[in-house]
Amino acid sequence: VQLQASGGGLVQAGGSLRLSCAASGRTFDAYDMGWFRQAPGKEREFVAAIRWSVASTYYVGSVQGRFTVSRDTTTNTMYLQMDSLKPEDTAIYYCAAKLNQLWPPRRPDSYPYWGQGTQVTVSS
């Protein structure tokens, strides 16, 4: 499995960004895919996840109602639409994939496949 994250950038507070994660290497019907983030000096944090086969979603409370995770099965791409961004959303964002066993899939150590990360910076 190969994952390629993109779409990060610099945005003002209240703005929006859309991250993409292009997945390849196999079919993903039996997978969950997730977004994580890591700010300087902090541990990697779960943000959102989607069960590929049925598009069930799950979010950490701090982004609920502001972020939306989705997927396009025709292009094997996962998205994270981030609205109403806050300075505390600043971090490197990673996408990850794992077989769909544990739900909700919040634990970083349950994901064996990771993308390279994309920087999101929200200015106040």
Polypeptide structure, described:
The protein is mostly beta strands and 124 residues long. It is built from no helices and 11 strands. The chain has strands spanning 2-6, 9-12, 17-24, 31-38, 45-51, 56-59, 67-72, 77-82, 91-99, 113-114, 118-123. The strands form 2 sheets. Strands 2, 4, 5, 6, 9, 10 and 11 form a 7-stranded mixed β-sheet that branches. Strands 1-3-8-7 form a 4-stranded antiparallel β-sheet, with no helix packed on it. The protein is globular and about 40 Å long.
Helix content: under 10%
Mean pLDDT: 96
What's the assembly state of these chains?
single chain
> Low-confidence spans: pLDDT under 50, at least 5 residues?
none
Helices and strands: which structural class? mainly beta
**Rg value:** 13 Å
Return the string of H and E elements.
EEEEEEEEEEE
* Number of E strands: 11
Q: Number of helical segments?
A: 0
Percentage of residues in strands: over 45%
Shape: globular
Q: What is the terminal-to-terminal distance?
A: 37 Å
Major sheet size, sense and barrel closure: 7 strands, mixed
